[in-house]
Structure formats: structure tokens, C-alpha cells
Amino acid sequence: MPSTPESSSNDGSNGFIRQLSRGSITEERASTDDELDSVSSVSSPGPQRNSPLPEVLVGDFSRRPSSAKKLFSSPRLRRITGTSVPTEEDDDEIEIGFVEPVVLRRGTIAPQRPDDPLFDPWCDPENPIQVTFEDVSAAAYMLKGGIQLTPCTLSHMSAMTGVNIYFKKDLFQFTGSFKERGARNFLLRLKPKQRAAGVIACSAGNHALALSYHGKQLGVPVTVVMPKSAPLMKVTLCKQYGSTVIIHGDNIAEAKEYAMRMGCEKNYTYVNGFDHPWILAGQGTCGLEMLEQVPDMDAVVIPVGGGGYLAGIAVAIKTMRPNVLVIGVESERSPGFWTAMESGKPVFTPTSSSLADGLSVPVVGFNSFATAAPLVDKMIVVKEEFIALSILRLVEMEKVVCEGAGAVGLAAILSGQLPELVGKKVVIPLSGGNIDTTVLGRCLERGLAADGRLCRFRVVISDRPGGMAELTKLICQLDVSLKDIFHERAWLRYDVFSVAVTCVVETRDWSNAKALEEALRQKYTDVVFSDGFPT
User: Fold this and answer.
1) Which of 272, 340, 428, 524 has the fewest CB atoms within 10 Å of its CB?
2) CATH number of the domain that residue 511 is part of
3) Do residues 264 and 285 share a domain?
4) 183/165 same-domain check
5) How far is the C-alpha of 80 from the C-alpha of 46, rounded, in Å?
């Protein structure tokens, strides 16, 4: 991770560092030629904070494949420092605008698009912003009294897994997820004119809820654009919190485009739920709380979708405790951050339907990636069955209802992909608990199947009197409960006095399921046994 070059007086070198101060940008000579070869003059300021001399470093964006920590050998990124909040007096001094095209080394030009309503100057892929520990600390101060200090307690699963697990229960926030941290921090950082005009966001879930709730608390008008697939419960809750809800688009991408265009037309401030620097800083306050509650932790395992939660927590923890392992976890159905780490930059990654639908982001945040990638020690991708099993374990052993996206950290432990954490103190945030009851029922059933406690088999038995009685007696003798049964006669190639029976049964555990399979195979010749998910 590079350090920010120190500016110096004009010593004849060819490099420049752009210095951003209140409402203006000046140029100073850089100390070495390697920092930046040439930068064009800039006519209007881009995203900035009210700080004495926040620095902006522009350079190349490249990756060294030898180490994830060397992703930014000479990054094209903006490291914006300073933590003070713009006041009403600064309102005329600092205006959010667009940076004109900046000439980079080798003569390339960053594709700034000030006239494009879909361009967000705070989330510019050509000039990503790294969030600092100062930003996270400032957010923690601003959020005092505005969000819940959620518990971080030792898990009942520690003995079972061999890992000393501490669950940081961010799902106990008022709206049920960690998103409140970033949403409130964002709203508090707005200038008076922006607060009066209102904000707009695109979300199908937790971000919309958090922004709606805290917008109402702070008196900021909130408009939320949700796709047609958004759960009715979350749409209703957003309306109850006082937000204007617009249903538009078949997917989140169409809803986002509509929201950004509407924000441009009506002068709303668009809120990127996982990549705006203020959002990232707010999410990082969770990491500060973890350090206070489990100061001697060895590792933290964090769910990853767009990357904002990972980025904020990683900055907080790695700054205070560099030896703590930071591990990110994604679903196999949406491995966007893992793909970005492999590619050296955020790239489009196809996603598919997942139990962890809150993590289904096709392109991770550019600011999130620039901030988190140098700090992440390991990325894990987990299968769907372990997410389902994690939801089941949390309900049964922790008495907590967690959504799939919030349970992937535990899934990484249960899948056996982190053997190095055995015997260590590990903090796992349970990031959200907003799961539909119908989806919860399906998750629990899939979890039972993954745990070997819900099995299905097909067996051909005699269709004469007593044939079914023999089968049910065998099932009863093994203390197995018959949950469902289906008879099939028409498509059977055996004699007309045979019937194929498909049964769904509940067993105690894997060993009980295997005992049932062995007993069936000993008694019947045609048995197809399915014990849930393949091993």
C-alpha cells in the first residue's frame, strides 16, 4: 500500500501533486518524478472534505500478482484526508462539482463525464478514494447516540467448531442491519442545502430501510427506487418510515439508472449504498466496536457484497491491530470481490439467485476495492448449502434469525475452509436479519438437508397388502420420522404388483441417515437414496 508523497517547493522536478483546499485546487511540485509526471490544470473541485489540505494523488492503477497487498504499486487513487464536517458557513465555499479531464502519465486521459447523469463523482472508477482511519474515527464520533452499540458475545458453537467465535450482532440495529452506520453518517455529513433538497437511493433491502429510518430521524427527505422484485415487507417498511418509494425496473441495475437520472433532474443527492466514502467510514465503526469488545481477537471474518463493510472494518482493525487477520467471505453465486482480487481491479461478475441475496453485486465498489484490497489477508467463497446450514445453526444454537448474507462468515467456518483459525479468537459480524418468513422456511429445510437431518429416498416395494407396512416398520425401528410420501405406479417397469414409493424423512443426524440407507439396501433391491447435498 503506497504512502502519500510529501509535497515540496519548486525544485525543478517534473512531477506534480494536486493540493485540494476549500473550494479550490492548487498545484505544487512533487518531490520525485515517479509520483506524477504531469497533471493538467483543474477548473472546478470534485468531491472533497472541509479540511486544511486534503491530498489527492493521481497515478497509474496496476497490480503485482505476487501479493494481494501490492495491488497498488502506483495507484490512480485519491487519498482524501481530513475529518471535519462542512458547516453552513462553508456552504458557499465548497460545492460538489466535477473534475475536468486530468492528463495522466503516458498521455492517457481519465474519462470524466460531467454531463452524464449516470456518472457519480464520488465513485469514479478512474480515481477511487481510499477511506482513512481518521474518517472512521470521525464517523464514530458523529454516530454516538444515533445507532445501537450491538453486543459481541461468545458463541455456543465454539466448542463444536474448535474456534472461539464471537458474534458481533449488528442485526440488532433498529432496521435489522449494519447499513444504518453508513446511512446515518452520510446524512449527517450533508450540507444544509443538500439536506433540504433530499437524497435518493436505489436498493431492494437493507440500505433502503436504513436510509429511510435515519432520514426521518434527521429530517432529510428520502426517495427510494426499488426494483419490482423488492420484498413487499421492505417496501411497506420504507413507506412507514416516511420515504417516497418508487417501484421501477426488473432488476437493480434498471432501478439504479432511474434513481440517478431522477436525482440529477430534481437536484437530489444520490447515495451509493456500498461505495460512497462516507458510507464506508460509517461501516468502519463496527470494527472499532469489535476492538473494544474483543481487544485480543486474532481474526475477523466479514461478509462481502459490494465491499463497503469489508473496507470500513478492515481500515479500523488493521490500523489499530495490524496482526489481526482480515478475511472476506462471498457466496459462490456472487464472487465479485474474489474476482476483483484476481483481476487487480473491479470487473463485472455474473451473479445468480442465492440465499445470500444481499451480497449479489455484479461489480464491487471502486472505492471499496481501493480501500480494502491492500488490507485483506484472504478471500473465501462458500457454497449455498453451508449458508443454509449456518442459518439453521444460528436459529438452533444462538436463537438468532439471520439472513443469508449475514450468515456467510459462519459458513466459512462450518465449510472447513479456515483450519488456521482453530483455537483462535475470531469475530464474525452477523450483518443483517431481514429475511422473509417464506425464505426462512426454505433456508431451514435446506439447512436440515445439508446437516443430514432431512433425507429423501425412492424404493420399489410390493403393492400387495402389507408391503407399505413393512417399509414403515423399518423406518420406525430406526427412530426415523416419515415427513412425506408419494406413490408411483404408472411409470414403473416392474410387475404390476410393485409400486415405487418416494419418501421424505427426518433423521437425527448423518449417522442415523446412513443407518437407514443401509437397512433399505439390505431389504430392497431397488433403492435410490438422496441425503441432501453431495459431499
Assistant:
1) 524
2) 3.30.70.260
3) no
4) no
5) 11
Q: Cα-flanking dihedrals φ and ψ of residue 139, to 5°?
A: -65, -40
Cα–Cα nearest to 315, from 281, 343, 342: 281
Sheet of 454-462, strands arranged across: 481-488, 498-506, 454-462, 527-530
Which residues form the domain of 474?
452-530
List, edge to edge, every strand of the sheet that includes 24-29. Answer: 24-29, 16-21, 55-56
DSSP per-residue string spanning 151-209: -EEE-TTHHHHSSEEEEE-GGGSTTSBTHHHHHHHHHHHS-HHHHHH-EEEE-SSHHHH
pLDDT tens over the chain, length 535 residues? 434 433 333 343 333 223 333 233 333 333 433 433 333 333 333 443 333 323 333 223 333 233 333 343 333 444 443 333 334 444 443 333 333 333 333 233 334 455 677 888 898 888 999 999 999 999 999 999 999 999 999 999 999 999 999 999 999 999 999 999 999 999 999 999 999 999 999 998 899 999 999 999 999 999 999 988 888 888 989 999 999 999 998 878 888 899 999 999 999 999 999 999 999 999 999 999 999 999 999 999 999 999 999 999 999 999 999 999 999 999 999 999 999 999 999 999 988 888 988 898 889 999 999 999 999 999 999 999 999 999 999 999 999 999 999 999 999 999 999 999 999 999 999 999 998 888 899 899 989 998 989 999 999 999 899 999 999 999 999 999 999 999 888 877 777 888 999 999 999 998 999 999 999 999 999 999 986 544 4
Q: Are residues 378 and 414 in the same domain?
A: yes
Distance CA 74, CA 60 (A): 5
Give the number of domains in the chain: 4
Predicted model pTM: 0.76
Same domain, 17 and 126: yes
Residues contacting residue 106 through CB under 8 Å, at least 6 positions apart:
60
The SS3 call for residue 244 is strand
Q: Is 137 domain-assigned?
A: no
535 inside domain: no
Among 220, 249, 271, give the residue marking a domain's end. Answer: 271
